[in-house]
Amino acid sequence: MKKYWYHFIFLIFIIGSNKPVQAQFADDVYDKYTSVGQLGLAVTNFGVLGNGWNKIDGRIQPSCMYKQNTEILREQVEHFSYAGLWIGGKVNGERRVSTAIVDGVFESGQEGFEYFANSDVKIQSSISSTSLDSMAQYYSPYAVSHQDFTMDFKDYGTIPTDDYGIPNHTPLGIDVHLESYAWNFSFADAFVILNYTIKNASNEIIKDIYGGMWMDASVANMNYTSTYEPGGGFTWYDNLDGYDQTTDDAGFTRDIAYQYDADGDDGWAESYIGVSLLGGTVPRPYVQSHYNQWVWTNSNNADYPQYSMPLMDFERYDAMKTNVPKGTGVDYTDEGYPSATNSWLFLFSAGPFGSLPANEDSTVWELPPGDSCKIVMAIVCARWNGTTDDSPARRAKLHVNNDWAQKAFDGEDANRNNILDAGEDLNEDGEITRYILPEPPPVPNIAVEIDDQEVTVYWQKNAESFEDPISREQDFEGYRIYGARKTLNDSENEFTLLGEFDIEHPDHDDIGYNTGFDFIRIVNEFGEQDSVEVDGKFYHYKFVNSDVKNGWLNYYAVTAYDRGDPAANLESLESSVYANRKYVYPGVKSSIDWADNPSVYPNPYRGQAKWDSYSSRTRQIWFQNLPTKAEIRIFTLAGDLVDILDHDSDYKGSDIQNIDERKNPQFSGGEHAWDLITRHDQAAASGLYLFTVENLDNESLSYGDIKEGNFLIIK
Fold it and tell me: What is the 3-state secondary structure (H, E, C) of 474-537?
């Protein structure tokens, strides 16, 4: 049976499972995904990661997409359908493993789906400014990252020994608390940290706990052959796995289990997905990471006998505490793993964990009843570094991104021994503070004003007084203003640098261009710094971008950057260019006087215009020079009514499929798009069309006036 069917069945399970009634659980949540950074990872409250690339609420949400916020289609790569937590341990000598998901399980209540939601998904954010309104609403002083998800689940029913009727499932009797952390920093937006706390809710001691991540990886780009059909653009069977044990700058091995598409799908899937251990309750020297892989549902691999799927709990536990043997020869990569592409899965695991050592050598750890332990892992993605065969050099960006995740977790614990050693207590609170990253200045709060062939970008000076948490200095240096790439054919550069302005500072003349801010500063009639009000907020700087094309989707962003910290070997850091990006459609503003005649562009429309997509429902033309409120009627030359459009100055493009509402684009107010679909839901034919515009603004002196025009469609 193909995995596509498995994914469909699994979605039915998570949407509406028929769980027994003897235990009360929270509703399954599967539509939450990290959105602040470039890694869009779906996180559920029942131990599963990913959503199988299925449509949720009518649209496809990221499962594990990197880069999710780019406009470059080749870089919008998905990395797995599902992944899930495995927790193994020994109770009275019996090896038990509780799994969130395993191969080939198609119905609820079966072996494999063994965690149950015990809470909703709570969202917190450390973002309090208006630059990211979607996150500002979740602001909490207790948030760890820019976007925290918090949830609870367990592996038992009513009591810790209740197997909930699942075959071959003997619960460990554990409660699991998961907190996921994501950031929007440009250097820390390619990973999500998963902080698991495992509590022993049973009356038995659990020894030698191992935490694992089962992953049904398949690196693929949904835009490769079909934008609209999940799975249409790739095959499951062209992937290769590996285990990266290179050494980082601190002298520790990275131990990253990873997968990649073997041929990169002609440049559409040149990306890595990796999983690594960052740490936990047990100090790093006592914990070992382990790696296994097998082909989907293959428990008896004739080509690679040692690479077979574990079936029983004792087999799963043994796999979690050992590495799959490496091989040599033409059937294996240079690093000893299978070289034949297939639908490979992998299992990354680490242990032993517990709350206290069971012997003097700390080779056995145990978790007594009521105690808890932590296991912290990272999901990391990265673009290939070059296009040669898989190698540490090609995984260089994966190393960089994983190392930033490790630095975030380590915080003050530089030597990773779980002890606050001399010189490590940076904030002098007597405890190890984790999840510390060097920070660029805050994202500037921005607003845009749209006009005829012109966009004005405004921003506030909220970044200028920021104190870096590492250097403890106010090291703000300047601003950069970005716009959309210059041409649609530019597949490498998503942004065009429109301007850069920095402080004129004699002590830092090697940073930036020392332009000063006179060109962008808003001043009053006396030349003093002032502000302007836009939608109830006050802004201190502005940049005018002229000669932009009306009717084209455009975007703008403003970043703030600092001087860097040479003492800490940190280069200048810049806020994320994606964090405050505003999408706009430049055009003529609406007019309450309505002095100009309405018109249409492009006219004639020659199918297809360059802004159109390939579907007949993603075409569009624009009506311009409209009053603040109007009714547009479109007729054939014979006088037959083709369509009616209701317009007001708050028009958002919701009636046009070619306009993505998720980008929340802003419009000028005096233009309205038409998708060339008639009121009878048919594509408009070639020919000359007439239109009328009636002014319905009752505050206008020209209220009730009707103006006419025409346009030509050529297909």
Answer: CCEEEEEEEEECCCCCCCCCCEEEEEEEECCCHHHCCCCCCCCCCCCECECCCCCECCEEECCE
For residues 707 and 135, give the distance between their C-alpha atoms in angstroms, rounded to a whole number. 45
86 in Cβ contact with 347 (< 8 Å)? yes
CA distance 698 to 632: 16
Residue 598 pLDDT > 90: yes
- Maximum Cα–Cα distance for the chain, whole Å? 94
Question: What is the C-alpha separation between 643 and 635, in angstroms, rounded?
Answer: 7
Helix (H) or strand (E) holding 12: helix 3-15
Asked which of 258-272, 397-411, 423-437 is least confident by mean pLDDT, the reply is 423-437
pLDDT higher than 70, residue 12: no
Instruction: Report how far residue 144's alpha carbon sits from residue 587's, in angstroms, rounded to the nearest whole number.
Output: 41
**pLDDT by residue (tens digit) across 242-270?**
999 999 999 999 999 999 999 998 889 99
Backbone phi, psi, residue 274, to 5° = -135, 155
**Is the whole model's pTM more than 0.85, yes or no?**
yes
Tell me whether the omega of the peptide bond preceding residue 285 falls within 30 degrees of 0, making it cis: no
Alpha carbon distance 437, 181 (integer Å) = 12
Return the CATH number of 446-585, one of 1.10.260, 3.30.1180, 3.30.450, 2.60.40. Answer: 2.60.40
DSSP classification of residue 231:
T
Amino acid, res. 530: D
Give the start-end residues of each E strand in 354-395: 356-357, 365-367, 372-383
pLDDT at 684 over 50: yes
Alpha carbon distances (Å) from 609 to 582, 689, 714, 715: 24, 18, 11, 10
Distances (CA, A) of 221 to 370, 380, 610, 612: 45, 17, 23, 21
Q: Are strands 605-606 and 706-714 parallel, antiparallel or unpaired?
A: parallel
Tokens of 254: 């990275």
Topology of the domain covering 599-714 = Immunoglobulin-like (2.60.40)
Q: How far apart are CA 272 and CA 218, in angstroms?
A: 10
Per-residue model confidence as pLDDT tens digits over 164-207: 999 999 999 999 999 999 999 999 999 999 999 999 999 999 99
- Give the Cβ contact number of residue 305 at 10 Å: 9
Long-range own/partner contacts, residues 334-341 (CB < 8 A, 24 or more apart): 334/391, 335/242, 335/243, 337/240, 337/241, 337/242, 337/243, 337/293, 338/240, 338/241, 338/293, 338/303, 338/304, 338/307, 339/240, 340/303, 340/304, 341/237, 341/238, 341/239, 341/240, 341/262
Check if 446-585 and 599-714 are the same fold.
yes
Virtual CA dihedral for 364, 365, 369, 375, nearest 10 degrees?
-140
CA distance readout (Å), 319 to 96, 289, 574: 12, 11, 43
Place of tokens 């007001």: 648
For the chain, percent of residues with pLDDT exceeding 70:
91
Domain ranges of the chain: 3-410, 446-585, 599-714
CA 187 to chain centre: 14
Mean pLDDT of the chain: 89
